Amino acid sequence: MAIRAKRVMGAAIRSGLCGLAMAVAGGFVGTPLGQAAPTNADIVKGADWKGMQTVKVEIKEHSYAPKELVFEVGKAYKLELRNVGEKPHYFTAPEFYKAIATRKIEAAKVGEIKVPYIDALEMMPNGGQLDLYFVPVTKGTYEVFCTIEDHRQQGMEGKITIK
Ligand SMILES: [Cu+2]
After folding, report:
1. Distance from the alpha carbon of residue 6 to the mean position of ligand 1, in angstroms
2. First vs last Cα of the chain: how many Å apart?
């Protein structure tokens, strides 16, 4: 009798452990056990930079041209933001910047900025340019606008779609 009880208990412990293991595995929904979700750095590293597409936006008082941009998830892009106006202008798009994996921002002949997240980029007048190298990650439609004085009301806003 004592032996039988011990066996039943052993089975209960084994099945209990099994349930625990399943609960742990269930905690990582969508990701195989022991394999973390790719980081932005992994996404940047894995993109095809030889096949990079360049998209140019010309900025001035008070417009972005083009004012609508479309990017595809997983592809490598260089977004050239060039201010040909006579005032400084912003390319403010916090939700868009959160939806991409940023490789770097380049200021030609000046340097490179390597940051994980951005809120806004400002281009100096008369040809100031920043090049954003990135890979789109999250599908959606995002707004972009200039936060200087009344520039947005004057027309400095646009739409960025990631599909
Ligand atoms: Cu502006």
Report:
1. 78
2. 67
Q: For 59-127, what is the HEC assignment? A: EECCEEECCEEEECCCCCEEEEEEECCCCCEEEECHHHHHCEEEEEEEECCCEEECCCCCCEEEECCCC
This prediction's pTM: 0.77
Q: What is the SS3 assignment for 26?
A: helix
Q: Which residue has the higher pLDDT, 102 or 5?
A: 102
Instruction: Report which secondary-structure segment, H or E, holds 141.
Output: strand 140-145
Q: Which of 6-10, 56-60, 123-127, 134-138 has the lowest mean pLDDT?
A: 6-10
How many A from CA of 134 to the centre of ligand 1? 23
CA of 28 to the centre of ligand 1 (A): 44
* Ligand 1 geometric centre to CA of 45 (Å): 33
